[in-house]
Amino acid sequence: MSVGKVRDFDIKNGNWSAYVDRLEMYFVANKIAEDLKLPTLIALIGEPAYELLSTLASPRKPSTLKYKEAVELLQAHLQPKPSILAERYRFRQRRQSAGETIADYVADLKKMSRYCEFKINLEENLRDQFVCGLRSEYIRQRLFAEDNIDYQKALVLANTLEAAERDAGAVEGTQEQTTSRELSERIHKLELNKCSACGVNGHGAHNCRYKEFECSYCGQPGHLRRVCRKKEFDRRIKSTISNRGNNGARGRSRRGRVIGSSAYGAGVWRSGNMARGGAATLAPHAATTLPTRRTG
């Protein structure tokens, strides 16, 4: 019974190099002899890949090839050898992206270096590009301060600093949330303790010495002018009327002079238009009647 399973090769989306690596391990695990590797390859790659191999090997038949020849034919077609200069250029352009961890950044750098043929200088080139492409200025400067740091040590130190930055950010975020919540709670408590008679915090209206005073604005007892609700209500009404009046002055009727009358009642504007032949037009700029203000 064979060990493991190798699926058909996907000639559109598959990675031939990775497929061959898995196939080689399958040969080892199942102790497949050299003279049986080609038949095993042909049996496992699937019909689309076999048809491609037949086309590439023509006029020879795939069965007449050696195993290495079949692999190289498919390799040259599916993954032609890229330009070393172009691959190194792409490698040099790689930078750590926003939100990308150092571990993911390094993994992609190593993947990109496969076709750069750095050979014995691989780790030196990985170190240089890794450090130069780091997103964190703090981590990069910290690595610059190290004397002749190698690739492995740079990676360990950068991961440690990244974790420290992440933990520090989490702690600061928690502290900010706590401070904001505590401030909101204090403000809420102050609002609850605000006296309705005088507006001062720290006591209720029932203990306020102004609870029997008569308001100089509305004439009602029990509060001072500065906390008078009627005063605030009237202020808002005047503000609303003023805004509507300013807007209405810009929108006079184009068909004739508007002679209108307006009255305020139950929070609704009512207008009448007496322009000859004119359509009904709202004239909020006209005279307005407001509740009589009492002074005291």
Automatic annotation (TrEMBL):
<keyword id="KW-0479">Metal-binding</keyword>
<dbReference type="InterPro" id="IPR001878">
    <property type="entry name" value="Znf_CCHC"/>
</dbReference>
<keyword id="KW-0862">Zinc</keyword>
<dbReference type="InterPro" id="IPR050951">
    <property type="entry name" value="Retrovirus_Pol_polyprotein"/>
</dbReference>
<dbReference type="InterPro" id="IPR036875">
    <property type="entry name" value="Znf_CCHC_sf"/>
</dbReference>
<protein>
    <submittedName>
        <fullName>Uncharacterized protein LOC113501312</fullName>
    </submittedName>
</protein>
<feature type="domain" description="CCHC-type">
    <location>
        <begin position="215"/>
        <end position="230"/>
    </location>
</feature>
<dbReference type="GO" id="GO:0003676">
    <property type="term" value="F:nucleic acid binding"/>
</dbReference>
<dbReference type="GO" id="GO:0008270">
    <property type="term" value="F:zinc ion binding"/>
</dbReference>
<keyword id="KW-0863">Zinc-finger</keyword>
